[in-house]
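Q: Convert this sequence to structure tokens.
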Amino acid sequence: MILILKFDHFIQKVRYRYHTGRYRKVASRLKPGTVLDIGCGRPCETMPDGAFLRFLGRGTGVDIKPCEGGFDFVQGSLLDLPFESRAFDNVVAMEVLEHVTDPHRAFSEISRVLKDDGRLVVSVPSETWLWEQIWRVWENTFGYMWHETHSGTMHPDEWKKILMQYFVVQSQRRHWHFDLIFQLSKRPSS
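A:
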């Protein structure tokens, strides 16, 4: 606890840079039009609900928990999105999918609410051996709010394999070595 108190200010600055850096990369992959941010709640203790939507300046957020702030928000589950089919030009899911135990249902729902020519941008942890060690320390110290919440983690190859069942991978890159960012489009109907 003393370690957390002593270094918390520095760690929060790093976390802010980490999140806003990812926001810039994700925003650069969006197309014009409507945006749905899945899991729009607080990314960390010192950032507000809807942080990405505030950064972007537009969009609708959905989260399983109530969220506050000056942005359009609907409470709901990723596994049963409370939106009409083909409602959004862009869907974003940053650091959400590793918390989901039924990724097939999640991707089916995302595909349903995304327009046929829409774009999905996803970021997930790159579950390598190094990430697993860092995460174990992190969730037991500074990242205590996320302790034991990663219930649907996968290796990078597994993420790509499941994503390709529902979407076409247009690009893939890393953020700070520990996140994978995928830009995807809907798979054409058969």
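The first helix runs from residue 2 to 27.
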